[in-house]
Description:
heterodimer; A: 466 residues; alpha/beta; five-stranded parallel β-sheet; 15 helices; B: 198 residues; Aconitase, domain 4; 16% strand; globular; binds iron/sulfur cluster
Amino acid sequence: MSKTLFEKIWDRHVVLQEPGSPAILYIDLHLVHEVTSPQAFEGLRQRGLPVRRPGQTFATMDHSTPTNTLELPLMDNMARRQLQQLQANCKQFGIRLLDLDNPQRGIVHVIGPELGLTQPGLTIVCGDSHTSTHGAFGALAFGIGTSEVEHVLATQCLLQDRPKTYLVSFSGRLSPGVTAKDMILALIGRIGIGGGTGHVFEYSGDAVEALNMEERMTLCNMSIEGGARAGMIAPDDTTFEYLAGRAYAPQGAAWESALTNWRSLPSDPDAVYDRQVDIDVSRLEPMVTYGTNPSMSIPISQRIPDPAIESDAVRRGSLERALSYMDLQPGSPLQGHPVDVVFIGSCTNSRLSDLRQAANLLRGRVVADNVRLLVVPGSESIRRQAEAEGLDRVFKEANGEWRFAGCSMCIAMNGDQLQPGQYAVSTSNRNFEGRQGQGGRTFLASPLTAAASAITGRITDPRTLL
Amino acid sequence: MECFKTLTSGIIPLARDDVDTDQIIPARYLKVTDKAGLADGLFSSWRYLSDGSPNPEFILNNHEVQGAQVLLAGDNFGCGSSREHAPWALAGWGIRAVISTSFADIFRNNALKNGLLPIVVDADTQRRLFAMTGESPTVQVTIDLASQTLTLPDGSQVSFPIDAFNKTCLLEGLDSLQYLLHHAPEIEAYERTRGWAL
Ligand code: SF4
């Protein structure tokens, strides 16, 4: 029978499926970070259980780490205790940890691919919803809660109901200045933030095939913002080229047999999906969010919608509350709206190509007065590569701040945060109320739009500066 | 896990769609290494004013809903981050069931593992419940998990879905990790068929 990419991977990983119970699904790779793991390790200790496969478990620190220094004693006490807890847990249970001073440390979803841990056909989980990022390699990768982290640590398995499949087909060619970030914002705007609930996205079509791996990661990263726990892209030569020679990628004969396996993964031509949506990207514009969830976005040339046209009362109320939180007027344009902070970073858009795009716009320019530009690379490796290319100098000469790797202002746990009432253009993935700091207001956009807005101090269409 | 059989309780109406886990428990509360104390941060940005005092406008500060254990929400409750701190905070405050038309997948999984029952109802039932709580804030619902029925304040009943596995776990207070550990032999057999190791 014909199968989709998802179905092939799922079927190969079902250990047991008893009637009336969820499947026992085998997990190949488990990524761990400091925020969602302490209670899981504590659970193991209470039950007297070891980690079943420490060799298939990999830990990093990213969420609450500082980005202005790598010195632990300078940080706030609770964050420091959380990081020390992760160190102690990894030591006790024999798990590899990329510690604060490790040159390969970074945001968990950035380093997995960088190290070649993320490979086609694998099942990958992490106590973090943006685990969907790894699906860019044709892996089944999804976020889990802390109880499930404990399950995987103890048994290398999860109890899972089989999700449905959702084909997202992007066709056409992106115009200059329009990026993968705009594609995913357009999708979420179209289907809503609950649109993919219970489903796994598979992104396909010529517009997806044309993307490089970093762009594919941006696309898959925000699958969760469309309600899907996972998003996947069939592995192809672009995927294999990216992986070849990476630290944990198979080598020599193992590489050849891996390739044979990986080439069998793409969906069969007549495979059937539960749902499908088609999006033509050729007329896509840069997208910007105006509200307090990632589905509330518009093409940059358009105006903020009027809640009055919403017939459902709760929906209308949500939109009104969003505009009131953002202090924006229905019917007004977003373009030209003043901004206080521009954040370029996060597991959505902090890879080398994102930094290059932003730097290309910023080169020889300075950010507007009163705008704070914060550039935070996704990993320490990216930081070093960017510095080797002189990108750090471009950001600093533009009066931007250049930081060490981490989640930083995406989640505002480490002190990098907005002040109440401030507006930020952010390349991250969530514009929820207070996400980037209590009372802060977020416009989600691409690195190009972010850089353009930093230069003018207002939300700006990057195509006017290219 | 505490078992869940029946519950008769007041209702806390939260008429907002797409309540995300960043709202349920903001990230600044996530630096803890245990599960205790999270109830203080539940909905904190809505619940407290900027000077730290309770926001009288927010439903959780309404004296009539104190002690209520059922939260009535808009559509798509629990979207966003995978933080299990969200159900820990809800349960810590005393919430035992959430009623919505839909739940985000990870939140639903997390809730079920903490004895917090997600109840899916249709849009009409949701609307009627909001109307009833609007008329009288002290009305009650009764949840009977064994028969999967929700009895509304007007005495009418609707049934709600739940899969057999989670229903048994909740009714008997069973921990799903036990089920996995019990199947260790099958896991071992599976691992022998696979060559993968990092
Ligand atoms: S960068 Fe943001 S979204 Fe990504 S893992 Fe860190 S906190 Fe989560």
